[in-house]
């Protein structure tokens, strides 16, 4: 069903309200028969999107309310979360930063509601990877992350005024027997912190960032 403006060709054009065959509804702007401009789309599932459209796809600034209570507010490109945006998860955690192809990708900050801990750093395809900082109640870790876990050289900075330098090294794990089909069972990679020295506080510059010019 459609109730709204049409152009000379009879296409939906201008402002209108529509009820789709699956029970979803849309109220907003149309161009040549397609959702384009500002609008609000209500899903039968309880989800809701309000924001910009381009040729029936979410594109531009918009807010999506998901059925589980989570919410994304930010940039959209071709129906995907892409650009800058903030996601509030159902458990109260939040991520604010860059998105690409629907995933956390680029620079961003993730705050864990239960503990108050915070990760500030790089993300690749939804996983912490690259230089980053994990901030806890009275200390923080600064270093590099790989596949969501710290790996390589880094340091723990304590609020009482000292640092512990060291590195996370991967533990060698005993290889499992191969399955009868001949496929190996992938083992989770664990890393262990090896401390090397304790110093006073020193500046930290992430490895792939150049220090400021003198």
From TrEMBL:
<dbReference type="GO" id="GO:0005634">
    <property type="term" value="C:nucleus"/>
</dbReference>
<keyword id="KW-0206">Cytoskeleton</keyword>
<dbReference type="GO" id="GO:0051321">
    <property type="term" value="P:meiotic cell cycle"/>
</dbReference>
<keyword id="KW-0282">Flagellum</keyword>
<keyword id="KW-0969">Cilium</keyword>
<feature type="compositionally biased region" description="Basic and acidic residues">
    <location>
        <begin position="1"/>
        <end position="14"/>
    </location>
</feature>
<keyword id="KW-0966">Cell projection</keyword>
<dbReference type="GO" id="GO:0035082">
    <property type="term" value="P:axoneme assembly"/>
</dbReference>
<feature type="region of interest" description="Disordered">
    <location>
        <begin position="1"/>
        <end position="29"/>
    </location>
</feature>
<dbReference type="GO" id="GO:0007286">
    <property type="term" value="P:spermatid development"/>
</dbReference>
<keyword id="KW-0963">Cytoplasm</keyword>
<dbReference type="Pfam" id="PF02493">
    <property type="entry name" value="MORN"/>
</dbReference>
<comment type="function">
    <text>Functions as part of axonemal radial spoke complexes that play an important part in the motility of sperm and cilia.</text>
</comment>
<dbReference type="GO" id="GO:0031514">
    <property type="term" value="C:motile cilium"/>
</dbReference>
<keyword id="KW-0677">Repeat</keyword>
<dbReference type="InterPro" id="IPR003409">
    <property type="entry name" value="MORN"/>
</dbReference>
<protein>
    <recommendedName>
        <fullName>Radial spoke head 1 homolog</fullName>
    </recommendedName>
</protein>
<feature type="region of interest" description="Disordered">
    <location>
        <begin position="171"/>
        <end position="192"/>
    </location>
</feature>
<keyword id="KW-0469">Meiosis</keyword>
């Amino acid at each position: 069903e459609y109730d709204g403006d049409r152009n000379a060709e009879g296409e939906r054009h201008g402002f209108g309200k529509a009820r789709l065959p699956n029970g979803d509804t849309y109220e907003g702007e149309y161009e040549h028969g397609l959702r384009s401009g500002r609008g609000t789309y209500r899903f039968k599932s309880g989800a809701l999107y309000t924001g910009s459209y381009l040729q029936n796809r979410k594109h531009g600034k918009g807010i999506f309310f998901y059925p589980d209570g989570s919410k994304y507010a930010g940039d959209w490109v071709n129906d995907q979360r892409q650009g800058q945006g903030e996601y509030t998860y159902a458990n109260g955690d939040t991520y604010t930063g860059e998105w690409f192809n629907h995933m956390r990708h680029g620079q961003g900050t993730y705050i864990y509601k239960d503990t108050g801990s915070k990760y500030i750093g790089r993300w690749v395809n939804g996983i912490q990877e690259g230089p980053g900082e994990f901030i806890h109640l009275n200390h923080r870790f600064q270093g590099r992350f790989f596949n969501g876990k710290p790996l390589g050289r880094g340091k723990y900075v304590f609020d009482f005024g000292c640092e512990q330098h060291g590195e996370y090294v991967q533990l060698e794990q005993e290889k499992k027997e191969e399955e009868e089909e001949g496929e190996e069972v992938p083992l989770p990679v664990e890393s262990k912190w090896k401390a090397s020295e304790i110093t006073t506080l020193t500046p930290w510059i992430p490895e792939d960032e150049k220090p400021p010019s003198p």
